[in-house]
């Protein structure tokens, strides 16, 4: 009985240690509050801040840990930007509008924006760390009036990540692959999902100020997948979204100081009270190859399946 008791005690202690280690691992992948009213994170791969309440951008600042490389520029990563229909653009970007944030029980962070008379919709964004190198983004949009061919344009801005690529159906010789985004291809470049979405892109929504865009059109996408890389360190970020959510990817030319990479979500009619939900994922690493990028995208699509 004493032997059994000792074994049981050892098993119990081992289970407790495993449980505590699991909790510690989970804690690494959780946002937490700080004394400045921010939601902060340190996964061991990246660390940074998401402003909780008031006006603010996306993940900003965010830094790669080893080597120590700042990632974000401008309004940060994964920030809802342009809210567009053929008839109207609402405001400038979500960073101008007050929001409220909270920590979720699973360690995620949620931001919410309430409707106003000149902004007849509610929307929210949620970020969760899937792994130390992977953050998942979900945005939900619910209008108070019918919206025609609504587009939510989500931006991520990178500091000195002067290598930029998109994955297209024909990268040369009729084969899919990644293509660069150099200045000689245009200051602002757009990769559509297919030619069927071009009437939507050209319906006048990009004429609204501020900063109307005159796109340089690039090849059709093979997947909503892009790469941004800081060439000196090799620090790399993959940006991806599922095909059913994203109808175009666009970028500032890769040498531009803005360092922009955008996802065009939805592009569909939405009724009063109906909710549209879109997704994206960022993966952070060092010297991620194109082959590895494709593998990570395929895994993302598997992760989204119920």
Describe, in plain words, how this protein is organized in 3D:
There is one protein chain. The chain has 306 residues and is of the alpha+beta class. The chain has one domain: Beta-galactosidase, Chain A, domain 5 (Distorted Sandwich), CATH 2.70.98. The protein is built from 3 helices and 20 strands. The strands form 3 sheets. Strands 7-8-9-10-20-17-16-12-13 form a 9-stranded antiparallel sheet, with helices on one face. Strands 6-11-19-18-14-15 form a 6-stranded mixed sheet, with no helix packed on it. A 5-stranded antiparallel sheet has the order 1-2-3-4-5, with no helix packed on it. A hairpin with a 2-residue loop joins β9 and β10. The termini are far apart. Residues 1-25 have low confidence and may be disordered.
- pLDDT under 50 segments (min length 5)? 1-25
Lateral arrangement of strands in the main beta sheet: 7-8-9-10-20-17-16-12-13
In terms of DSSP E residues, the strand content is 35-45%
Mean pLDDT across the residues is 93
Classify the fold: give the CATH topology.
Beta-galactosidase, Chain A, domain 5
CATH domain class name: Mainly Beta
Question: What characterizes the major β-sheet?
Answer: 9 strands, antiparallel
Could you tell me how far the N terminus lies from the C terminus, measured between alpha carbons in angstroms?
A: 47 Å
- String of helices and strands: HEEEEEEEEEEEEEEHEEEEEEH
Helix content: 10-25%
State the CATH architecture. Distorted Sandwich
Cα radius of gyration in angstroms? 21 Å
| Strand elements, count | 20
